[in-house]
Amino acid sequence: HGITDCSLIYKMYYKHNKNNLYTVVKSNIVGDKTDGSYLLNMLSFSKDYIIKSLNFIPYIRGDKDDGSNVKNIITEYLNNESNVLIFPEGTTSRSGAPKDFKTGIFRLAVEKQFSILPITIIYDKDVGKKDYSTLDNSNIFDNTANIYIHDMIDSNTSDFYKTNDFMGLKNKTYDVICSPFNVKEKKEEKEEEENNLLNDTSK
């Protein structure tokens, strides 16, 4: 799911920007020598090349030292007019609706005064697979995505930066990104109610 999101955002971004766009990803995104999958195991041998060529910033989940190093890399790139794509929930879901965000990137944003541009992607069909089920590629290639570019949360004007309120910034970003999903859910609920009403009147 995350790979699909990145592809869409990359295509949109480089159509209008020349500065590099980096993406924070899990360190095993392109395989690991301990992976049971033969393909991922083979990919691990060219891992460094793949990560560098795709402008990935790999991180090891739960490793504080690595987390500090990643924050330093993010800071360096942003200070040099590049941009960084981050999935602050640290995982993905089939529906695309985000889970609660981690706080680390918002602590860094407040500390370094980095603005945030929230982006939401909603697919017509769920992407990915359920646990232990076979991946249905049709949901990836036969799909439609709506992309919402929200207003910038500006470090120069937002009170969250002035008061060092990283939790407020996190919650604000989460609410903004989730807002299109809430609209979609309400629309689906309304359509379901209308269908139920039609079924009742036709009996």
Fold topology:
Elements: H1 2-16, E1 21-26, H2 38-43, H3 47-53, E2 56-59, H4 64-79, E3 83-85, H5 104-112, E4 119-123, H6 138-141, E5 145-149, H7 159-162, H8 166-202
Parallel strand pairs: 1-2, 1-3
Antiparallel strand pairs: 4-5
Termini Cα gap: 42 Å
N-to-C order of helices and strands: HEHHEHEHEHEHH
Beta-strand portion reads 5-15%
Q: By helix and strand content, what is the structural category? A: mainly alpha
Please report the total strand number as a whole number.
Answer: 5
> What average pLDDT do the residues reach?
80
Tally of helical runs: 8
Low-confidence stretches: none
From the spread of the alpha carbons, the general shape counts as globular
Rounded to an integer in angstroms, the radius of gyration calculated over CA atoms is: 20 Å
Placed side by side, the strands forming the largest sheet appear as 2-1-3
Largest sheet: 3 strands, parallel
Q: Helix share of residues?
A: 40-55%
Describe this structure in a few short sentences.
The protein has helices at residues 2-16, 38-43, 47-53, 64-79, 104-112, 138-141, 159-162, 166-202; strands at residues 21-26, 56-59, 83-85, 119-123, 145-149.
Describe this structure in words.
The protein is mainly alpha-helical. It has 8 helices and 5 strands. The chain has helices spanning 2-16, 38-43, 47-53, 64-79, 104-112, 138-141, 159-162, 166-202; strands at 21-26, 56-59, 83-85, 119-123, 145-149. The strands form 2 sheets. It has a 3-stranded parallel beta sheet with strand order 2-1-3, with helices on both faces. A two-stranded antiparallel ribbon has the order 4-5.
